[in-house]
Write a structure and sequence with these properties.
GO terms for molecular function: catalytic activity. The chain is of the alpha+beta class and 162 residues long. It contains three helices and nine strands; from the N terminus they run αββββββαβββα. The chain is 22% helix and 30% strand.
């Protein structure tokens, strides 16, 4: 959290997306991870020490609404930001645990499908998919086609989220 405070003091940041903002050594509540000058949108997993947060600067002209999706994938948060004219930005932060089970991975793939069908003119997805074996510059992986990382790449391609 201290690093984020330093960054917001040094740079003009309109949007900040964070995975695992919850401290691992002590319980954290929403007020202790809010940032001055930002509207916070936080999804904390009460049963673990992680969550997702999106901070939108109060200094930018924006209208933000939280997006409800028909998904059982819990570790994500989605915002719709009204831009100029009829433009809309769908902004999402997603966390996938490195120990994610098959069912959770399938839910993530389904979430990506929903996002690709959402009515927005722009989409930005950030977070941590925890696939260190993916080489994003080449859209390849060292794993076989049956592995989760390759299925994740295929899901991103199939939904045109690249």
């Amino acid at each position: 959290m201290n690093e984020m405070l330093l960054l917001t003091g040094q740079y003009t940041l309109d949007v900040i997306m964070v995975t695992e903002p919850k401290y691992s050594t002590e319980p954290t509540s929403e007020p202790t991870i809010s940032l001055k000058g930002y509207q916070s949108y936080i999804n904390l997993d009460a049963g673990s020490h992680r969550g997702i947060a999106i901070y939108v600067s109060n200094s930018i002209d924006h209208l933000v609404t939280e997006v409800s999706l028909n998904t059982t994938y819990e570790e994500s948060i989605w915002l719709n930001i009204k831009l100029k004219g009829k433009d809309k930005l769908l902004l999402g932060c997603v966390y996938r645990s490195p120990s994610s089970i098959e069912q959770n991975n399938i839910q993530l793939f389904n979430l990506l499908q929903q996002i690709s069908e959402y009515d927005s003119t722009h989409t930005v997805i950030g977070g941590d998919s925890n696939y260190p074996e993916i080489e994003w510059t080449t859209w390849s992986t060292t794993k076989s086609e049956e592995q989760h990382s390759q299925k994740f790449i295929d899901s991103c391609r199939d939904t045109y989220l690249h």
